[in-house]
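Board notes (copied after class):
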Amino acid sequence: MIYKEQKGKLMGERKSHESDLKERIGLMDKIASKHKIELSLTQTQASTGIETQQTYATTSRVSLGGNTTFTAGDTTVDTAHMTVSAEDMEVFEKALKTKEEDLRDGLQNFKDKSREEEDEVQNILNDLTGKQRHVEADREKLMKQQREAKRELQNITSQSSSRSRLHKNDIDDAKRAAARYARERDEANQDPRIKSIPLEISKISERMRSIQVELEEDKTTLSQLRRCSDISNEISMLERQKEGDVEGLKDTISDNSFLLQKFDAYPTLRGDNYVNTIETLADNVRIKHENTREESDRASEELAQLQQTIGEKSALLSHNKRSLETLKAREAALCADDRGVQKIRRVINAVRNFEHQQLDTGVTVVQNDMEPQKLLEHLTERIGEYSAEDTPESIARTMKKLKKMSKVKGSGGQILDIICPCCQRSMDTNEVMMFDATMESLSDPIRSELIQTDQASVGKNRSALRNYETWRKIVSQSMPDYLDHTRITNEVNDLEVSVSNGEDELKPMQDELSAAKDKADELQNDASELRQLLDVVNRLRDDANRIAEKTRQVASKRDELSVMAPSAEGRDLKSMEMDFDAKNNEKDELMRKNTKLNKDLTSLNHRIMTLGSQATKAEQQAKELEAKHKQYQEAAERKKELNESIANCIEEDKKLQEQEVPIRQKIRAKQSDRQRMRTVAAEEEIRLNRLINEFSNDVQSLNSLTERIDRYLESNNEEEIEKLDSSLADVASSTREKENALKEMVPELQALQKKVSDQERHKKTIQDNIKLIKALDNVKKLRDELSVLEEELENLQGSNALNDDYASAMSSKKRHMEEKHRCEGRRLGYKDQQRNLKRKLLTPEYKDIDERHRVKMIEYETTMIAVTDLDKYHNALDKALLRYHGMKIEDINKIIRELWTLTYKGRDINNIALVSGAESSGGTKAARSYNYRVVMTKGNTQLDMRGRCSAGQRVLASIVIRLALAETFCLNCGVMALDEPTTNLDYENKRGLAVALAQIIANRAAQHNFQLVCITHDEEFVSMMKNELSTHTGFDMPEKYFQVSREEGPDGKHYSKINAIDWDEI
């Protein structure tokens, strides 16, 4: 086999080599014809016979330009059967190399030529582009000059529009006003009162200084007299207060005599020294209070400890009662018809009924109170019994196995003998035929008595098997519910006992708690009364100290009064006070005269100053108007110059555009030529590159074929093939000899196998005889032992009692075994329950449940704290919002009052105001709303404006409120829009609205983003606005206002048109 494989491999390589030769000649022919290369080949034709191998060759030189045929001698040969010599290949490779160099030189020459042509076009294009850029630079310079001139013109125009137009008459009016103000100022400076008023002020001041000296002297004497009078009054008042304090002290002791006598602390007062007696009383009461308070604290601690114990026991008892109710509810749920407990009971009844009907004895081991574990064991045992029944298929398989066991096979797999599968005895031909017939009849479902007998009970057994499997499945699935029910029942019993014990323990503790409460209340009452008494004693001590202090003050005051002796020159306190008052009145009258003169002098100076500032301002304004008029004339001249410059720039730009057009046309033409040249050159370059790549690929393919052919020629495969042919012939001859020798040895081998088989059967028979003899000897020995034991049994006394003991022991053993099985079942149930609980604890729902519970409790507590804090913050914010609303409403009402007074000219409404009220809906804090209403005031009476005002008053009120809201809330948004604000307003109210708007504009003119947009059809109102705005200073008047109208267009449609109208045209 190895030689054949090697030969096949070598023959494949030979065929591949011949294919490569043909392919190389074809490829060379293809390259020669495609790329026009001369190809010279040497023809060699080979002819091979079938039985012999003979080769003859005809050689000639041919030149091919393609795959053609030619004639050599009398034979026509196709180019596909030619071979290529090494000389031919060398010549062809040189031709290929020369061709490749020619192609690459042609490509490089084409690239150089294309680059030169493109450079020439690019030079022309660069010249044209330079000219275009020069023209564009000139145009850009003109455009820049034009933009600068327009920008300067726009600035001049905007500056002119921002200033009102000045006339020569305005300047003359300003100069005349300045001269008038200067004349009035000079007249005010010549007023004679300016010199007389300071002299009068000087005389009054001198008199006031002399009166002040006399007042200071009288004031000192009067102070001494008043001091003596005050001391006498203080002595009398202190004595009256002392008497009152003594009476109060005695009254306090009398009012609290019950407490003082209860605690044996009633004081005895002697003489005026009450301090020592009260101090002793205070010390005794304080000591008794401290002792009683300590006893009360100890009783309170004992009471708290007892209450804590009772609380814990009560909480535990309540928890046990709640757990008991929960477990009873779960127990009732587990006993429902669709749960496992009832299912197991129904299965027990079904099994009992089934076994009563199916079993021959009519007795079943299944009891009504049977444990589910024992029931599972019983069902499993029954399923095993019914599963062990034979089926026809199993009987047929058994017959096949017996037939297979009867065949004795050799090492090669051939059948050597047929034996009995039971006794291993050899069978002759007749016995083999009978054995086969018997096996076939037993395997045939129709003829086999064994199968027919078994089929009679197959249906019944399968039905019972299905029933037992169904019951076992139900019991297995219901086992968790049964175990939970058993566990819950035990827990309910334990909890009932625990609840009963807890109630028994709690009752005496509650009695003890009642007694402790009474004792603690009594001590607490005593401590409270002593605390009250201590407060009373402290008040008594304060009263005693106050009485002693007042006694000391009276003595001190009397000593001080005896020492003081004021000098009043025979005048008493009353006459001194009358003189002092008269001098003060004179001084006040002089001060009023002085003040009036100062006011008159200040008024004169202020008038002079005002007239001076007005004159200065008028002169400055006249100069400014004259300077503005001069600037306006200069700006007009500059605008004219700029317009001429812009016109010149436009003319120059048109000339440059005319020069630029032919240059652009030439550039586009040259760019088109350059692009066309690039496209043609790229296409030609791609064609030459593709030709070179195809040539290189063909050469590479030819080189690859040549390398494969050379490798085959160097491998000596032909010699290997001849050697393999010789080796295959030798192997075939040796194989035939071995097969002949093997055929001669077959009869001898069969005889030896039969002899070995006979010896095995003889050996087995001898071994069976030995086993039989040993078994007979063993039976004899056992019979002798049995007879000896029977004799000993007859000799024993009390055998009946022993039998009874034996029966009793067996019964006890059986009972203990049953108990063991029950315990084992419960243990397995508890283990299953334990495993289930452990699995539940490992599930994501219960994993790390303690830690998660702790975290959630922390989150709950922190959330509640946060809710409390947020409630506080909400209340504080709500109060702040209410205050903010009140403040803003006050600001708005203040502005409304000012604007209403300024705009409304009627006398029926003094003022209007906004009134807000906070209302809560649904009782929730988040749903609070604020309702505002407008009220009008006349005197001290307020009424709602709704339904009580005219249309004009309503419009004016809405405008005033809008303006007030804008002033309050929209300081950063400077746009204010009014649409038809004068609707339903009379002349006076329109004028008042114009005054108010003008004042708002004047006040907010400094705001950089303020704008007022007013839309109206009322030209009278526009005129009022103009007049009012002209009276204010500090801002520039708008030059124009905008008039919107509708005009019909050429297409018959109406269009809106906006015109800017000068204020002077109104």
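Comment from the instructor: Residues 970-1066 form one domain. The two ends are 128 Å apart (CA to CA).
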